[in-house]
């Protein structure tokens, strides 16, 4: 060995042995051996490595400066940390997958509901994302009115929401594809049950409109709800009662003139008894119903209302009529934005909707 003995070579500056992991990370075998002898855990040992850097040594050979090795301990992630990192990434992937799956189910339910209500479906493709969003943002008046017509048929009890039985019963009567209806029910009903916490899941018109037009803004929803309110009144409107026949009207007016001897235009309710029109008990009933001002008198219009047959309007200003079957119909007026409605509603719908539309008592 060129004049150098083994003893002189080993007595020189200690030269630690290193193992290379081919990533420029080094671990001294001598230190690892000592840790194993002391009972250190392999995971702790494997979680550290020695980084080798060069430093100048004051001892040189042949007048030149010699570089020695400087050992620096650097922490590396342990196998447990690496496993946690993999699990975290897996959780992120699963969360994104759930979001993608929910989005796919929402679009599937959207297209199914549009097919059931509007009768047409537009296939969606990623290349036409902007067109899809624009189409599913705000419905036209015709589309909203079509949806409103279906809603009024589904909401049999007119309570403002539709449960599973009403939804399934409506589409089964129309004999449409059951798969389309099941897609809508599977998407809407679980969410309605979670939101309301009630035993019987139900959805509102706003939730169903959100599904049909998923990208609608608040302004779009306000507009469509206004169109819906107008369309609902038109959908539940009943036929107006007939006007009192002219011949019958003239007979009643002649009877009134005979009772109004002083030509005051007013007749006391008590005069109905001697005229043979009503007995004492009937007079009490008529007075409670028609004598709103408690004056004890009635005019021509009030007399026509009292004497008109069931189902007939005594005069044009009458807004409440009792039909032959005993059910009542009411004349209502409603206006909002550019929409206006004036028509007759059944007493049941009137009572259900008077708070929503602000109808008078």
Instruction: Kindly state the number of beta strands.
Output: 13
Helix content: 40-55%
Weakly predicted, low-confidence segments:
43-75
Average pLDDT figure: 76
Shape: elongated
N-to-C series of helices and strands: HEEHHEEHHHEHHEHHEHEHEHEEEEH
- Count of helical stretches: 14
The span between the termini is 118 Å
Q: In what range is the share of β-strand residues?
A: 15-25%
What structural class is derived from the secondary structure elements?
Answer: alpha+beta
Count of domain modules: 4
**Cα-atom radius of gyration:** 44 Å
Task: Describe the largest sheet.
Answer: 3 strands, antiparallel
Give, in spatial order, the strands making up the sheet with the most strands.
11-12-13
Organism: Effrenium voratum
InterPro entries: EF-hand-dom_pair, EF_Hand_1_Ca_BS, EF_hand_dom
GO molecular function: calcium ion binding
Protein name: EF-hand domain-containing protein
In short:
The chain is 50% helix and 18% strand. The protein has 361 residues and is of the alpha+beta class.
Features:
calcium; elongated; EF_Hand_1_Ca_BS; two-stranded antiparallel sheet; alpha+beta; EF_hand_dom; 361 residues; EF-hand-dom_pair; Recoverin, domain 1
